[in-house]
Amino acid sequence: MAEAILGDHDQYSCWICLDLLNDPVTIPCGHSYCTSCINECWNTKDKKGTYTCPQCRQAFNSKPQLNKNTILGEIMEKLRSTKLQVSDAAQSLAGPGEIACDFCAGEVFKAVKSCLECRASYCEMHVHPHYNVPALKKHKLVKATVMPICPKHDKLLEVYCRTDQNCVCMHCLMDDHKGRDTVPSTIERNDKQMKLTDTQTEVKQTIQAKEKELQKMKMDITSHSDSAKDAVKDSKRVFTDLVKLIEKRSNEVIEKIKAQEKADLDHGAKLQQNLEGEITELKKREGVLETLLQTYDNVHFLQNYESVSSSSGSNGFPSCSFKPSCSYTDVNKLVCELKDRLETVFNQEINETFKICLQRTIQFALRLETQSK
Prior knowledge:
Layout: H1 2-6, E1 24-26, E2 32-34, H2 35-45, E3 51-52, E4 59-60, E5 67-68, H3 70-81, H4 86-89, E6 113-115, E7 120-122, H5 129-132, H6 134-137, E8 141-143, E9 159-161, E10 166-168, E11 182-184, H7 185-240, H8 247-294, H9 298-309, H10 328-372
Antiparallel strand pairs: 1-2, 1-5, 3-4, 6-7, 6-8, 9-10, 9-11
Helix pairs in contact: 7-8, 7-9, 7-10, 8-9
């Protein structure tokens, strides 16, 4: 029941304070108000001896009797007891740096809309008259923002002076900015927004190119690391075929390969880190551009345009690639050639050794044969 009432809670709000009715009373014309609100209204505003309904403007020659609306009072109590008021369910208190409602008393809620005609900001509850009151419906509501006011004329900044590159009010056009190149701020915003959108597109394209470059670099580094591992494996296989005499040299070669791999990978990691940093910076810049493009505040947009509109595409971030100091394929080839040379040398030495052994065997046999004769 309470939720159904809340769905149409405007009829249970006081026309004077715009809050839920507190101790509601009904006057002869049928409209209801908070007891304190209607008493204060009639005590402070009626100077001609007449009393007028703030809502329908019906006048009474004498102060009408205030009839307590018991049923409406009970409904208000149920709404408060179940904590279904709009102020609790749909609003939040204004925090530091947030736009506050100009009409809240006591607890000040965060504003959701600003009226360019009233030059005021409203929370969810206090903005309702701008949706319901015919005269207020014509006002222009925007997302809650700080009113851009001319410090000299106390008027809204609605015009952009291209000569001075700043925002001015309509009175400034007749004063300091008379005869200068001026346009409505919305037109200048659209022009600069198109340029800023092009800059954003360029940044996005640069990010995509850098991400592709990073992916290629990762593949090159992985391939290089795999090549180093293969070289180590092949070297181990080659040197394990050699005699223990060259095991020390085998370990030295392996350690050199690993050391060179580490140096190359450290260098590649540094390049990769730099490239990731560039991408991070570009994404930060894209976020700044996106935030500025989404702002409803023309003044804030125009004042920050120059600082973010300079191009920072690929020209600002030169391309780089991973180039190892050596190729492990060449290392593997040299190791295989060394193995072949060593095998040749070993074979020659073994053959020479067998030849000498054979000659000595023959000489020894001849000597024995001579001695036997």
